[in-house]
Amino acid sequence: MGLLSYVARRLALLGLVLLGVSMVVFFVLRGMPGVDPLAAYIAPGLPMSADALASLRRQLHLDEPLPLQYVYYVANLLKGDWGYSRTAAQPVLDALLARLPATVELAVAAVLLSTALGIPAGIVAALRKDRAADVAVRVVSITGISFPVFWLGIILQLVFFYYMGQLGLPTLPSRGRIGDTIALIDPITPMTGLYLVDSLLTGKLAFFGSALRHLVLPSFALSLISLAAVVRIMRASMLEVLRQDYILLARSKGLPTRTIVMRHALRNAITPVLTTAGTTLGILLGGAVVVETVFSWPGMGNLAAQGILNNDSILVVGFTLFVATMMVVVNLVVDLLYAVVDPRVRY
Amino acid sequence: MTSATRRSGAAATAVPVLEISDLSVELSIGGRWIQALDRVGLTIQRGEVLGLVGESGSGKSLTALSIAGLLPGNARVAGGSIRLNGEEVLGKSEQALNRLRARSVALVFQNPTSYLNPVLTVGAQIAEIFELNPELLEAAGGRTRRREAWRQSIEALRLVRIPDPERVVERYPFELSGGMQQRVVIAMALVRQPDLVIADEITTALDVTVQAQILSLLAELRRTVRLTLLLITHDMGIVAQLADRVVVMYSGSVVESSDVRTLFKSPRHPYSKALLETVPTIDGGRTVFRPIRGAMPALTDPPAGCRFHPRCPDAFDQCSRRKPERLALDPGRVVACHLYEGGAVSE
Question: ipTM for the complex?
Fold first, then answer.
């Protein structure tokens, strides 16, 4: 079985997953009692005649039975027409794609942060099992995951923006992706839409600095969701690997602990962490709703939150589908990465 | 401390490669320290093959691990001494032990599949030994150290009769058969030109035909590289084939030590006799097995007196009362058994 046919099979599976997701989301939202789906299509407060409403309803097939509406919906989806979002005042797909880079930048930064902190912490905890360092790492990571993210976000804003500002200390930005001034004076030409990447490519270091500073607090708040999981899994996996026979053989060669951990143990122990990081990235891409809202981050989650409040079912269904797609794609990429880490994995 | 072995050989004047005397090791089981090795003594001269035999759980592997300072976390040395080339091993720092393992003592273990690191190539696992022993690469000529290490790794594979070593060196362990994997581990041991190789049940996990190949390889290496070998096995057939002298262990103690020929001709300790009878013989066309009745006592609840007495066909009242002393019977032979107390001088 070749790599290509494996990927092809997984992509076919992706189609099935999306069909399932779209069904669930569509029927839940459209079938909700007391909410007229037509409401999603008209501006609130705009007076419309009964005739106009009826003809709009017909035009949108909203007078058909629900299963048929679903068929129309899917047919449109495949044509690239995901509907029009009242909230974003633009087509759903355009609105999501426009906000995708902001969310990707935030989610990737959060996952990188949680692995960069979590992997070393997990290794230290494993090597110092049941000693002070281990206990400290476990307590901190459990405490971290126990805070609600929105609360933690607000605390971070209070401390690093408000209080430090009060004390005349340097502060970190608490909202948005970029400083207002720099965005006006020295804007970048969007290429990938990822501010950090674009500003580096165009050599605008001031822009890069501002974008990076804006990223710190929200990505840290977001990273805490996965940090505890990464630490725990890294620790458990490392302990398991250190018990293996090949570690004893490596020790019998007289290799120092550092080499044994980094060369012999880490690559064997990292696979479960990779899975966690991948899954988390998927979750964060869709689940940044709260953090994006707290930090006024102009990403998809922020838009989706507004959509929910506005009863914009077309947007919410589109958002959910979009997130499900990314989740499946990210998992596929992670599965392919296994083959890089572990030579025994072949597709 | 004293050992019969010192009186035993003609080579007693030379400093032995390995001299273990009165080694006691305890294991922590269920919060209690249990005596697992009881004043074990053995000596190996340069170029000699010493067979260490006994059933599973007799303490052979613990003895081996003690020599390399690789006792598991739940074990501790309670007394005695281990001298390697006259130098005390016990009490050495971890760093000094690493030096010792890197160069002087090499271990080969039972199951090559679990003792080779699955994610590193054969070559990487052999060549890393040179990182610790750069002096082995002195004859590098114009080559870089890396390339010279790689070249010598290929040579080591050739030495252990691996066909096509240039290709095997790039392979991962899972791509090789069990017999080839064990040859790789043996190559790792030889590449550092160690003073002592400890082979712990190295053929047990292999097929019978492969066992025979590995044993003939060892016999060949004895001649070609003048191996000094501590050969741990439960198989008297292997001892007969390879060893010069033999030490028989039972339940953590040495019960008899002798040169191989004498032991096979006239075993003294009832346990040695029983062990020799476990080697199947062909008697009038029928294969006869004589298993030793009973099982080795649990370390947590050893019988009083001689630990073998519950299974011993020759046991008498003394045996359950007092632990037998080690007796030097003939030159080169030590037995710990009450049967011989009348006729020999106690140590």
Answer: 0.88
